[in-house]
Amino acid sequence: MTSDTAKVPAEEIFELITDQWTGPYWDAARRHVLTVPKCASCGKFRMPPTPFCPHCLSQEIEWPELSGGGTIYSYTVVTRAIIPQMETTLPYVPALVELPDAPGVRLVTNIVDVPVSEIKVGQAVKVRWHDRRDGVTVPCFTF
Ligand SMILES: [Zn+2]
């Protein structure tokens, strides 16, 4: 790997705390299954998970298994550490990825293991699971 390769951000970037609305997403991730909440009443996807559907106010949720494919909608390249623990995980590339099998969702994620100079809006990507030391599994995306 070269210094141009997009890395997985340091684990210290966030501590995971879940509740009844977000837990199913992270439980599925731990099994390396990508899912996002889908309203069981009107059929629309929503992300992040919320107690009420913003379209019809239903609380009925389904968690369909997605293909893991996506398209980069937007991204940025972080080259400065905001905390000292991140010095070794630069550069990293936060991104919004659209999921073709969950219309309307733009997942906040990271592009990893590819040259930063080759990342482009509209690039097709696929999920790559990152199992953290603390037991949290984070969906990242790569070419
Ligand atoms: Zn709904």
Walk me through what this model shows.
This protein has one domain (17-142). Helix content is 6%, strand content 26%. With 143 residues, the chain is mainly β. The model has no long low-confidence stretch (mean pLDDT 95). The protein has a five-stranded antiparallel sheet. The protein has a two-stranded antiparallel sheet with strand order 1-2. The two termini are 15 Å apart. It binds zinc ion. Zinc ion (ZN) is lined by residues 39, 41-42, 44, 53, 55-56, 58.
Compose a concise summary of this entry:
With 143 residues, this protein is mostly beta strands.
Radius of gyration: 16 Å
Number of strands: 7
Low-confidence stretches are: none
User: Strand order, biggest sheet?
Assistant: 5-4-3-6-7
Describe the largest sheet: 5 strands, antiparallel
Q: Which whole number gives the mean pLDDT?
A: 95
* Through-space gap between termini: 15 Å
The fraction of residues in strands falls at: 25-35%
Tell me the structural class: mainly beta
Helix and strand sequence:
HEEEEEEE
* Proportion of helical residues: under 10%
- Overall spatial form: globular
Bound molecules: zinc ion
Number of DSSP helices?
1
